[in-house]
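cache lookup: miss for this entity combination. No prior model stored, computing from scratch. Input as submitted by user K.M.:
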Amino acid sequence: GIQVEQSPPDLILQEGANSTLRCNFSDSVNNLQWFHQNPWGQLINLFYIPSGTKQNGRLSATTVATERYSLLYISSSQTTDSGVYFCALGGGADGLTFGKGTHLIIQP
Amino acid sequence: SQTIHQWPATLVQPVGSPLSLECTVEGTSNPNLYWYRQAAGRGLQLLFYSVGIGQISSEVPQNLSASRPQDRQFILSSKKLLLSDSGFYLCALGQGGEKLFFGSGTQLSVL
């Protein structure tokens, strides 16, 4: 099956800092998505990005399908950005395969 | 826009007891529905997938079963819970191109 690797596994930053989260995958891109899981467990879909670049406020994502990786950028971090960020891809009968996530802590 | 209702938020059950978790969706028709489990705060595992009423695909052999009695209702069940069934259970809805949206989840503790 598809292998999804995320790095770094843990990241601690001060408020206002910028960060880059990486997702490497083993197979052709299909439905690549980024999620944020807040401390209460709620999973929010941030981006649906099988290729190219998208931006939403302080967050942006880029997927380079030919090189099998995707990046999530967070600028001017806020404490509410804390949580776990997941990359996932696949879909259809196999559902989405999730990476193990990056646990981000933003300190005030 | 679509809404996913999942309840209860937390559940504590003894080993050997039955389980029924319900997920209902609004604002969409004929959705693809999923049950995921998350253990130890990381890593989501797909348990079941449904493309329509009565159609269930199981991804892993386990002590659980799923049913879809109505288009917008997806139920996760067990006849006898095991300790290893503890975890965070999430219902999800897939839309056009399979962009995935999740419910708020149920934290299940089997004691």
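stored under new cache key. The longest strand of chain A covers residues 83-90.
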